[in-house]
Design goal:
Elements (H helix, E strand, L loop, with lengths): L2 H14 L1 H38 L4 E6 L10 H10 L4 E16 L2 E10 L3 H4 L4 E4 L4 H5 L4 E4 L1 H7 L9 E4 L2 E9 L13 E5 H8 L6 E6 L5 H16 L5 E5 H44 L1 H9 L4 H34 L3 H4 L11 H27 L3 H6 L2
Parallel strand pairs: 3-8, 5-7
Antiparallel strand pairs: 1-9, 1-10, 2-3, 2-6, 2-9, 4-7, 5-8, 6-7
Helix pairs in contact: 1-11, 2-9, 2-11, 2-13, 9-11, 9-13, 11-13
């Protein structure tokens, strides 16, 4: 019997038991589809975060203060002095005091995130105004109650009116809006457009805390980053006497950490996929064994008229491979559909899910290939069993 005839008989057998064949494929469909969708979700999340980090530049250094075991804390003045001592390596330093605040304008109220910083923040974070102005050194020196707001805030509480020059309340204190930020995320809530920026000295007074725990440092060149980080570590260690009281890191380190986390995620997903496909393979083997039992007389008749053991073996292997192959194709289509219509539209639901749809040809091929291998491996035992049947005993089978 030729391969074409074997394929025709396999299709006839699958089509003759549609429901059973579909249930057999279901484990493979779920396994392949879930792997493709899960990998796309992981890779899309990683790509979005990576693009954000790379957008900040490779010469950005972040300082996070966590310890309290010192007679004093590092101040903005300390870092400004440090920058003045290293003008060839540091171009700008900006403090950051962050909190959640309530805004009020007329009868409208809104909760948003607040950042207290300095004029250097505009250059370091690539944040610019579309109207009005950004912070000035004067604002910090004299604790001016001025604010720059994002478009999400402006659209909500000012309802289309020009916010520049208007007064609003931040946690009950009156601030004057002096600038409107350029739109970055379509003016959506809980995005980069949903923010208020005020002078760091005003933010310290508003939050009733003199301690600044986050700073951004911009090195003059990517090559200067390592030297600056080493000097910052030395300076902060002298202040805190404990290297565990602070963290100095840059975007490349964050990218490296992110890649490690993504690698672990891929291993976990691979394990889940393996379990799913093994379960699907066991289902295939069970159904094929049932099929062998049901078709015992058929196999006996074919052997009695001269069918070779190899022909019976090939027929059942092709049948198993076709079941998993068809399941793999459906699983790939479902996975691609999830990427396009679900993952691709998550950002429309909320900017918290800003995940780019990523189509990984490598994982599509791997998933489909594993589904085929699963069918062949788990179809071997039933195929061998069918090929070894004694024709006389098979003909007597009821």
């Amino acid at each position: 019997m030729g391969l074409i005839q074997a394929y025709k008989m396999a299709i006839k057998s699958i089509w003759g038991n549609k429901v059973r064949s579909f249930l057999t494929m279901l484990g493979v469909i779920i396994g392949v589809g879930s792997v493709i969708a899960a990998v796309a979700f992981a890779q899309g999340s990683t790509k979005s975060i990576t693009d954000s980090l790379q957008g900040l530049g490779t010469n950005l250094i972040s300082i996070s203060i966590t310890g309290r075991n010192s007679n004093r804390n590092v101040s903005f003045e300390d870092l400004q002095k440090f920058a003045e001592e290293n003008p060839s390596e540091i171009s700008a330093i900006a403090p950051q005091v962050s909190s959640s605040v309530t805004l009020k304008y007329g009868t409208k109220t809104r909760s948003t995130s607040l950042t207290g910083t300095s004029p250097e923040y505009e250059e370091i974070k690539n944040v610019h105004v579309q109207s009005g102005r950004f912070l000035l050194s004067f604002d910090n020196d004299f604790r001016q109650k001025v604010a720059i707001i994002g478009t999400a805030v402006a659209n909500d509480i000012f309802e289309g009116r020009n916010p520049v020059g208007q007064n609003m309340k931040i946690n009950g204190q009156i601030y004057k809006v002096v600038g409107l930020l350029q739109q970055k995320a379509g003016g959506q809530d809980q995005s980069d457009d949903d923010v208020v920026i005020i002078p760091v000295t005003s933010a310290q007074r508003l939050s009733k805390s003199a301690v600044i725990r986050n700073f951004s440092v911009q090195a003059t060149t990517p090559e200067a980053v390592s030297s600056v980080m080493e000097k910052l570590n030395t300076m902060l260690t002298k202040i805190y006497n404990n290297s565990n009281s602070f963290r100095v890191f840059n975007s490349e380190q964050m990218l490296s950490t992110l890649n490690n986390v993504t690698g672990i995620m891929m291993l976990v997903l691979g394990g889940i996929a393996a379990i799913s496909l093994i379960v699907g393979g066991i289902g295939i083997m069970n159904i094929m064994l049932v099929s062998v039992t049901e078709r015992t007389r058929e196999i006996g008749i074919r052997k009695a008229i001269g069918a070779k053991r190899r022909s019976i073996l090939v027929q059942f292997l092709i049948e198993a491979a076709m079941v998993t192959g068809m399941g793999g194709v459906v699983g790939v289509l479902i996975g691609l559909g999830i990427i396009k219509f679900v993952i691709g539209n998550l950002s429309k639901i909320s900017t918290s899910f800003n995940i780019q749809p990523v189509y990984s040809l490598q994982w599509i091929i791997i998933s489909f290939g594993i589904s085929l291998i699963t069918g062949i491996v788990f179809g071997l035992f039933p195929a061998f069993k069918a090929s070894k049947l004694n024709p006389i005993q098979a003909l007597r089978f009821e």
